[in-house]
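lol so apparently i was supposed to do this last week
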Amino acid sequence: MTLSNSQIGLRGELGAIFQQAISSAFPDVTETVLLMPCGQARFGDYQCNNAMGLFGKLKGKEGAPKAPRDVANALIAALPANELVSETSLAGPGFINIKVSRPHVAKRIGDMLKEGISTWAPKLTCKRAVIDFSSPNVAKEMHVGHLRSTIIGDTISRTLEFCGVETVRLNHIGDWGTQFGMLIQNMAELRPEGLGDDGGRDEDVSDLMQLYRASKKRFDEDEAFKTRAREAVTRLQSGDELYLKAWKRICAASRKEFQAIYDRLGVVVTERGESFYNPMLRDTVEELLERGIAERSDGAVCIFLEGYKVPLIIQKSDGGFGYASTDMAAIKHRLFTEKADWIIVVTDAGQAPHFEQIFGAARKAGWLTDDIAKVSHVPFGLVLGEDGKRIKTRSGDLVRLVELLDEAKARCVENITARKLETNEEVIPEEIEAAGAIMGYGAVKYADLKNHRTTDYKFSFDQMLSLQGNTAVYLLYAHARISGIGRKSGKDVAALAATHTINLTHPKEEDLALHICKFPEAIEDMLEDLAPSKLTSFLYDLSEKFNSFYVDCKVIGSEEEDSRLLLVEATAVIMRQCFEILGITPLYKI
Ligand code: ARG
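anyway here it is w/ arginine bound
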């Protein structure tokens, strides 16, 4: 449903060619092409693995081939005329090794340089996607889990935007619920004048964690306060002006904290918190009840789904609405009002059963079908401190995310300065400050994205800021070095593609060029699994292949200078597009 049939990229086009061979050699069977990178690079670039399966399907039929190798030979003979395949060979029981034409690879890259990287964006059937990510909770700590959601969700959004999908980036913040009763009540009781007009006094919301902790303590320990806090919820929900005002002030204070993170990370997300759906809850529950999708059970309104021990509770027995009620209203709104054809929700893995049930319930209600939309819950694992436990500051407190990001930046500023002093380069504080921010925030993002999102990872400044290995710091330096080659040549490398072509002569050139052409595949694979690590691996391999090319192939001053400069430029273009998707700003000079 995500990828359109008109595939671009080597793998997609080769797949189409082999698919055609399958249907023309064996018109009576339907079989989907199986194409993958060749297991052993010296035998080919890709391999087609259909012969064995086809053999099984054809067995017993009249004139059926005698062995899978015969099937493979028939496929090769049936290949339509094309300029991609330069050589095929058989291996094992019937694998077809495919070598891609080098002149074709060279031309492909030249075309991309002329026409722009957007021509290499995979085509998707999806037109409009809602991405629900970040989504911290008001007056509670925004923790590293929310940071992960922010980083992963932003990258997914950027990938879709690169593919031409219209995105609706939603911050489903927890800005409604019973916790506001105790917060507001506590605020009211701590002020001599009650909640009455505050003249803009903000001290009681300036430290929300503190307010939250104090209120929670009273709520847990003091029965009478608990009762007053519950009454406060009712007053708030019935629209009491003073209580609403207090609620808004708490939200505004939280928003400021969240925004500080988004600003540093360069993340754009539209706030549409739980309160937004509040006016829709009653009708949503009523509709589901009336249509028999939901039923009353022990006073609560529940949706029972097969395979789940506990039902989805969309209205509690005391009449209150909760997390699931809001998510039912949200999915309906996203499907019918937002008209999204892909809904993606990025949260910690612990919420997977909740979303399975929400999606299941939406299907049961008939709101969601495969024709209407695709839905994906994107779970992720934990971020741990270096000791393998929850990350804390040296004093043992939970880390504040802003401080974490500031430290990453400070360390980078320090490292860059030290390097410059070592090499006797000029130290321009503003430049280093800017580069340090790019590097520090980029490093935090990259360290997160490079792990498959479902694995837990350890947050380590030393690792993520290392100049060696698969880190943003290494890659940013690599990109700056690569960009420097073009500058040193004194030529307008970006314009060179209009007048010159690439000619691949050295095996290291071929290797690099082929990898460059696999960029669309990396994007496809990342979208398939919604796993940004697929793209970081591709990016890291690209820089490795570039290094090994650059060691063996002289660029400036060589006979092949123009062709190789184009290959250098193509590497830089792809690197920059990867950075863009990962939300990292490229540095041209450090
Ligand atoms: N606020 C929730 C949390 O902190 C995440 C919300 C995710 N989105 C949603 N539609 N429920 O875990």
